[in-house]
């Protein structure tokens, strides 16, 4: 006998928007025309890109700060152009990266209890793109490794701890990059581009591992994300402008494992993936619904589960990491839906009668501890995420401050990752450049010494004046 209904514990997942008093109200959500999610969430804070005159800004609110947000509430406002994308560091809940139209990436440290004053000074500014930066994505397992992609069609991977660009993939893409996704252990990235290609890239070897031309035939933007098993999931449009989703095996990209057509709406489908439950949530920009699918090993591989529908269209969407969910209420996902003037949390729940911890819904999940240091990853090591159990709920630990130690110029060697054409360069030119560099260094060191001398003189002068003041006062 063939089973008529597929067995799945997620068949009855239902979504529910929270009550009005648990929303974040009176927020002027950014109107910039860019297809990022405009919202980033972690177990402590929700960050939202907002309208800002004369630059770019985003709000960072502690999760409990619901209700009406005052117009004078402090923002993170160091960019000189609109902010296009934000991403919380997976290993430190107080560190967030932002990419902007001003061609820079900035990394910010948020105070433990949220902002009391507007933040204008980032911990580090990462400069290397020649056009606006529309994508920022932290490495899933290595500490302080950040990827950025810009409209200069370049992908740069930074060591945030030293402020250095260590990998620059500037010849891989011939057209605009729509999105970039790391795989489970951060050894590969996949990208979707305006040239209709989906690429799988090994960033450290700077090699193209796999590529699919015309993954989706339509002209509108695509998205591509890695799944936990190494397959790639894409969303895009058919030639007839129907929205599609597809599943690919990077080892054989000729034909998709599965291809489904959905509807003829024109909003870009943003995929949010939960590796623990193998559920993908699709949120269309401008849609008022969230569709969700389960990915399995049996045909048709992508199984439609249900749709959460509401009245208002969404301007953007934030997705809470698993460790920020309420396990006692069988909550398996929480979204932060951006309206024009507010942010509304939406809770996805599996109905269960028991109040006990449901270990089949909550396998061990990626915790906040980094499995590798940045240097280890750049040297070629890989590691899966360090998993934690959610049985007794997640208690956020103390985050260590992000410290940026700029490398001494004297210690810097040309790294293997940068395509250095040192072999082709005649010896003479390297000698002259090193002589020039030494002369420049001497100049800098002299200037530092003279500034230090000046400071010493000023200190002596100040102490003399203070002594004179003390005498007069006495």
UniProtKB/TrEMBL annotation:
InterPro entries: Coronin, DUF1899, WD40/YVTN_repeat-like_dom_sf, WD40_repeat_CS, WD40_repeat_dom_sf, WD40_rpt. Keywords: Coiled coil, Repeat, WD repeat. PROSITE patterns: WD_REPEATS_1, WD_REPEATS_2, WD_REPEATS_REGION. WD repeats lie at residues 76-118, 126-168, 170-211. One of its GO terms (molecular function) is actin filament binding. The keyword Coiled coil applies. Gene3D superfamilies: YVTN repeat-like/Quinoprotein amine dehydrogenase (2.130.10.10). One of its GO terms (cellular component) is endosome membrane. Residues 3-67 form the DUF1899 domain. It comes from the Eukaryota. GO terms for biological process: actin filament organization; corpus callosum development; endosomal transport; endosome fission; endosome membrane tubulation; establishment of protein localization; macrophage chemotaxis; membrane fission. PANTHER family: CORONIN (PTHR10856), CORONIN-1C (PTHR10856:SF10). Belongs to the WD repeat coronin family. This is Coronin.
């Amino acid at each position: 006998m063939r089973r008529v209904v597929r067995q799945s514990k997620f068949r009855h997942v239902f979504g529910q928007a929270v009550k009005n008093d648990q929303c974040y109200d009176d927020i002027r959500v950014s109107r910039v025309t860019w297809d990022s999610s405009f919202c980033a969430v972690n177990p402590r804070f929700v960050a939202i890109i907002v309208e800002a005159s004369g630059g770019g800004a985003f709000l960072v609110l502690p999760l409990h700060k619901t209700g009406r947000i005052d117009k004078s509430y402090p923002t993170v406002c160091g960019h000189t152009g609109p902010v296009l994308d934000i991403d919380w560091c997976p290993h430190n809940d107080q560190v967030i990266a932002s990419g902007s139209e001003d061609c820079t990436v900035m990394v910010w440290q948020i105070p433990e209890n949220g902002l009391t004053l507007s933040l204008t000074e980032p911990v580090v500014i990462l400069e290397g793109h020649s056009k606006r930066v529309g994508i920022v994505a932290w490495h899933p397992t290595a500490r302080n490794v950040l990827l950025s992609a810009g409209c200069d069609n370049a992908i740069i991977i930074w060591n945030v701890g030293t402020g250095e660009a260590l990998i620059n993939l500037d010849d891989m893409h011939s057209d605009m990059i729509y999105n970039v996704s790391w795989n489970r252990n951060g050894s590969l990235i996949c990208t979707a581009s305006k040239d209709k290609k989906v690429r799988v890239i090994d960033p450290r070897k700077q090699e193209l591992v796999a590529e699919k031309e015309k993954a989706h035939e339509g002209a509108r933007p695509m998205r591509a994300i890695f799944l936990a098993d190494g397959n790639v999931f894409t969303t895009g449009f058919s030639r007839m402008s129907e929205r599609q989703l597809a599943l690919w095996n990077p080892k054989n990209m000729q034909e998709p494992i599965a291809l489904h057509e959905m509807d003829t709406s024109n909003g870009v489908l943003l995929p949010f993936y939960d590796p623990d439950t193998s559920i993908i949530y699709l949120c269309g920009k401008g849609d008022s619904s969230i569709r969700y699918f389960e990915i399995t090993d049996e045909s048709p591989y992508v199984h439609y589960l249900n749709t959460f529908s509401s009245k208002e269209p969404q301007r953007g969407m934030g997705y809470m990491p698993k460790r920020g969910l309420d396990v006692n209420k069988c909550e398996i996902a929480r979204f932060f839906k951006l309206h024009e003037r507010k942010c509304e949390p939406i809770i996805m729940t599996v109905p269960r009668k028991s109040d006990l911890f449901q270990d089949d819904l909550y396998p061990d999940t990626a915790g906040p501890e980094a499995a590798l240091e940045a240097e280890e990853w750049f040297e070629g090591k890989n590691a899966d995420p360090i998993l934690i159990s959610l049985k007794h709920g997640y208690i956020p630990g103390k985050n260590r401050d992000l410290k940026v130690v700029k490398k001494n110029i004297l210690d810097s060697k040309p790294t293997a990752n940068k395509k250095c054409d040192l072999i082709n360069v005649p010896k003479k030119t390297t000698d002259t450049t090193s002589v020039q560099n030494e002369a420049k260094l001497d100049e800098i060191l002299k200037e530092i010494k003279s500034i230090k001398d000046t400071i010493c003189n000023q200190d002596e002068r100040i102490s003399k004046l203070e002594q004179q003041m003390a005498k007069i006062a006495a």
